[in-house]
Design brief:
Length: 200
């Protein structure tokens, strides 16, 4: 499976990519802002790729992970994925990371538009959501940019393992949802805190 954009080819990640995946993923910031472990070794990369190869065989597919490559160079410099695909409620979660030396060149913006298009048009999803820590400036900016493009975005805060995360819901372009933040934000924080208190 391949998605082609102006500068990039998003493609399946293969065992031969393990060294490039390990080199680019072994970054403290990726470890801090995602569920990718840090330090990240070639063994981690091989396990990740093996899991993605098994995921590809599942029917229906619950995840699509694409290796991000620049057109004239077949090296995997990052990963962008749709995970937890739920065909019945037409939802999925987006996740991504990019090797440090390739950042701030619009690469994830470009890859994100392609994978959202794929999710909404090919997989016929209605909502794609993403979570970002409030201090993750780059990722929050990306969602902010999407708001001004095709996708309507609504935002709320969720509490996961005692960490408050910004949760962005990207709606199918024709779904007509307006950006909203504050009321939902306070509702979610207070609701999550309430449930945490009950659990204690
Ligand atoms: C977040 C991340 C994916 C951004 O990728 P990227 O390819 O650098 O993003 P882009 O170049 O497409 O940038 C999109 C916008 O965000 C801005 N931006 C990106 N990183 C930024 C940063 N660290 N600080 C401030 N602005 C930033 C860019 O300037 C751009 O804005 P502009 O169009 O107004 O210039 C990348 O920094 C990364 O992999 N971080 C670590 C892992 C991670 O946080 N994953 C996401 C978890 S939610």
């Amino acid at each position: 499976m391949k998605l082609i954009t102006k500068r990039l080819i998003l493609r399946d990640v293969l065992m031969k990519d393990a060294k490039d995946v390990a080199e680019n993923a072994n970054d403290k910031e990726i470890g801090n802002f995602t569920t990718v472990p840090y330090p990240y070794t070639i063994k981690n990369a091989r396990e990740f790729i093996k899991k993605k190869e098994l995921d590809k065989k599942k029917k229906p597919r619950e995840t699509y992970a694409f290796g991000i490559t620049i057109k004239d160079n077949n090296i995997v410099i990052g990963i962008i994925s749709l995970d937890d695909i739920n065909k019945s409620n037409k939802k999925a979660e987006i996740g991504y990371w990019l090797g440090r030396k390739y950042r701030q060149q619009g690469i994830i913006s470009e890859a994100e538009k392609a994978i959202l298009d794929f999710g909404f048009k090919k997989l016929k999803l209605n909502k794609i959501y993403g979570k970002a820590m409030p201090k993750n400036t780059g990722s929050n900016k990306l969602y902010d940019i999407l708001r001004t493009l095709k996708c309507a975005v609504s935002m709320m805060h969720v509490l996961i393992s005692d960490v408050v995360l910004n949760c962005f819901q990207l709606h199918k372009p024709d779904a007509g949802c307006k950006f909203s933040s504050a009321p939902q934000m306070f509702f979610w924080i207070s609701q999550s805190r309430f449930f945490m208190m009950l659990k204690k």
